[in-house]
Amino acid sequence: MDAPTYAVTADPLLKLTGLQSDHVGPVDLELAPGALLLIAGPSGAGKSLLLRAIADLDPHRGQVWLAGQPRATIPPALWRRQVGYLPADPVWWADTVDEHLTGVQDDWLQQLGFTPEVRQWEVERLSSGERQRLALARMLGNGPRVLLLDEATANLDPENTLRMEALVMGYVREREAGAIWVSHDHEQRDRLGGRLLMMDQGRLADPAMASRS
């Protein structure tokens, strides 16, 4: 059976056709510039696997385009800068924060509750919540056109959750980027707005369409 297509506009920023892995899909999806797509569903439904496939981090089948350009024509390293993936537990590889923050604006750090001095901190001194916020800044420093956010605020208190939400939404709006945000938090989904899709057993469904059927 063909997968339903969840289109936002006729000129998508991100387009998936038949994206499929061993546990996900097939998924057909379109994301417009400036748009937010929220994905919810039970643990093990395939939400993280879908984001990892879009980011080209796991083996998969199907086609993906960024602004009309096939992913196969974009070098993998460049793709992962333009389609940024932020997991709930980001990896750090260098000793100091600043070594990870190429291209990061100080005002982003301030919006996330840091002073510019955070650049000189040792990574090992960071709490899980600080790592999460700084990983968002690190990803934005690459100038991504699409943000893939996988429970991006899972380790944060309410105040810092709002800070991250505001920075993401401001970036999406100002740069006409697109975002796909996986979130278990229904209050967060209500705050952010955007279109909601539910995922179960590797397949996406639109709850609004289901309620009308």
From TrEMBL:
Organism domain of life: Bacteria
GO MF annotation: an example = ATP hydrolysis activity
Show the SUPFAM superfamilies listed in the entry.
P-loop containing nucleoside triphosphate hydrolases
Any idea which UniProt keywords this protein has?
ATP-binding, Nucleotide-binding
Q: Which PROSITE patterns match?
A: ABC_TRANSPORTER_1, ABC_TRANSPORTER_2
**SMART domains (alphabetical):** AAA
Domain (ABC transporter) spans 8-212
Question: By its UniProt entry, which Pfam families does this protein fall under?
Answer: ABC_tran
- Protein name in the entry: ATP-binding protein
